[in-house]
Write a structure and sequence with these properties.
The protein is 49% helix and 11% strand. The protein has 196 residues and is mostly helical. The strands form three sheets. A two-stranded antiparallel ribbon has the order 1-2. It has a two-stranded antiparallel ribbon with strand order 3-4. Strands 5-6 form a two-stranded antiparallel ribbon. A hairpin with a 6-residue loop joins strand 3 and strand 4 (105-107). Helix 2 packs antiparallel against helix 6 (154-193). The protein is elongated and about 70 Å long.
Length: 196
């Protein structure tokens, strides 16, 4: 539901040289953590901006706060390569889970997230599905199709926090690269001091 983001870093060639000097496991950890940090900043803003239903809960309507609880971030493993790290911030659609006791199914489904983001037509009471389709396609107000205006939260969340996410990523990268480099120098010093 959001646009991509790329990180511009000063002195990248120096950082990459230091990063390549580290073992692959440490390289992966630093890069994954850096991108995950940026995704976390965006995810938190999604949750803050996601609107919460305040009206009556009709039968079949998700409980208030479902949209906020459905926001998640995940690493897109299939798109990741040694030089590209991809994380996704999105809303869960079509997911269910058991409660803590494993008894009943709790819906984590916010299937309506795109409707909230982009607006939608709603069927008035007593209108058949066929009438609703016809009213929606011709925008026939006589048949009772009602337009619900959009309440965007994903796009504004990304736009407002993308610079903060980049700064958080730069900070994480600087701190963790320095720690990893220092720890590797320490390990090398100890192993070279130990007689074989």
């Amino acid at each position: 539901m959001s646009d991509g983001m790329s990180l511009q870093v000063d002195n990248l060639s120096e950082w990459m040289a230091e990063l390549r000097a580290l073992p692959k496991v440490v390289q992966d950890r630093v890069v994954k953590g850096t991108v995950a940090t940026g995704a976390s900043v965006i995810r938190k803003e999604y949750v803050v901006r996601a609107p919460m239903w305040t009206g009556d809960v009709a039968e079949g309507h998700p409980p208030p706060g479902t949209l906020k609880r459905a926001v998640y971030q995940t690493r897109m493993v299939e798109f990741c390569t040694p030089t590209v790290e991809v994380w996704k911030v999105d809303v869960r659609r079509g997911a269910t889970a058991r409660d803590r006791k494993g008894q009943r199914i709790v819906s984590k489904d916010a299937f309506y997230a795109l409707w909230v983001e982009y607006g939608h037509y709603v069927r008035t009471p007593g209108m058949s599905e066929q009438e609703h389709r016809k009213a929606r396609s011709t925008v026939d107000l006589y048949l009772g199709a009602k337009w619900v205006p959009p309440r965007p939260f994903a796009r504004p969340a990304f736009e407002s926090k993308k610079d903060e996410a980049i700064k958080a990523m730069q900070t994480y990268f600087n701190e963790n690269l320095a720690l990893a480099t220092a720890s590797m120098r320490y390990v090398r010093a100890i192993t070279s001091a130990v007689p074989a």
